[in-house]
Amino acid sequence: MKNAKTSDLVKVSLFVAIIVLMAATPFLGYIPLGFTRATIIHIPVIIASILLGPRYGGFLGFVFGLTSLINNTLNPTVTSFVFTPFYSLGSYSGNFWSLVVVFVPRILVGITPYYIYKGMKKINNNDTLALGIAGVGGSLTNTLLVMNFIYLFFGRSYAQAKDVSFTGLYNIILSVIAINGIPEAIVAAILTIAICKALMRYTSRTAL
Hints:
The protein is mainly alpha-helical. The chain contains seven helices and four strands; from the N terminus they run αββααββαααα. The chain has helices at about 1-25, 40-50, 55-75, 95-110, 110-125, 125-160, 170-200, and strands spanning about 30, 35-40, 90, 90-95. A two-stranded antiparallel ribbon has the order 1-2. A two-stranded antiparallel sheet has the order 3-4. β3 (about 90) and β4 (about 90-95) form a beta hairpin. α1 runs parallel beside α3 (about 55-75) and α4 runs antiparallel to α6.
């Protein structure tokens, strides 16, 4: 039991290092798109959730959120106020809800894939299918919650910062989900299948 605990802590440390490295490397973890950023940092969080369980996955999701908070504070875009309370653009300022947007979806990215994977394995004992759906679910958890939280908590400010009408804002939200979210989910599914299958060959325990 002690050896297993030590092994998990080593794995968590490696995942933390991967997340921080991706966040700190330009055009790798956070890919600038002018008005926003696409990300692939959720992928190691999804993989850790499946392999190490929701407790460690949730912690790594918090680390993911923390890197986003730091990145949007130090290297802001016009809409970074929705991700950090420490940045403002004219009359638009981040606040408590920025912390909800930046942390809650990312923590859940480290929790939901584990339960999706376990649930799919019970329905259909097909590892590839279960891993793929868990990857998609984890990725969409991030995209759907972030974009809908932005609309809910910062809708009017976000619309003004992007110079669009509030009535048409949700169409913009849907376009971001389609343009960013769907490709991110497909990439997450492919990498989750490939990496988890490889790692599972070298461990007798896939989750807590």
